[in-house]
């Protein structure tokens, strides 16, 4: 792996009824001695999206801890979990297929917990994506949440 690739760790308080984790590591590319650009979509950390630049502090063990976002790239983070008893079952591939028309990149948390985290690019059709997400929730396909969004997302 290149010297400028690091894992930046984020700490947070676990949410009631959600995954029991209190930290998440995201791959990032160093921009400076204490900043890095996030290179993958977060499953758990809110307020950051792929492409954002974060400031980090390196502890005595060499672990890079996020100190907060420095600048936003304009992407959004959306997480989708298919409802097991719904028409998509527990199939993350079916979730991907529903959103494929928008060219969204996404990652699957695990086979046991098929949460799909998507990076929604800044130039995506936010209104159409939001409409499909709402339709899927209304029709029992999935639950979704927005982990990080721009003003453009919220106003679309």
Q: What tags apply to this protein structure?
A:
156 residues; alpha+beta; 3 helices; 9 strands; 37% strand; globular
Describe the structure.
The radius of gyration is 16 Å and the shape is globular. The longest helix is centred in the last third of the chain and has 13 residues, at 126-138. It has helices spanning 92-99, 126-138, 151-155; strands spanning 5-11, 23-30, 35-38, 53-58, 64-71, 76-82, 105-108, 115-120, 142-148. Helix content is 17%, strand content 37%. The protein has a 5-stranded mixed β-barrel. The chain has a 4-stranded antiparallel β-sheet with strand order 7-8-6-9, with helices on one face. It contains 3 helices and 9 strands, in the order ββββββαββαβα. With 156 residues, it is α+β, with helices and mostly antiparallel strands. The model has no long low-confidence stretch (mean pLDDT 94).
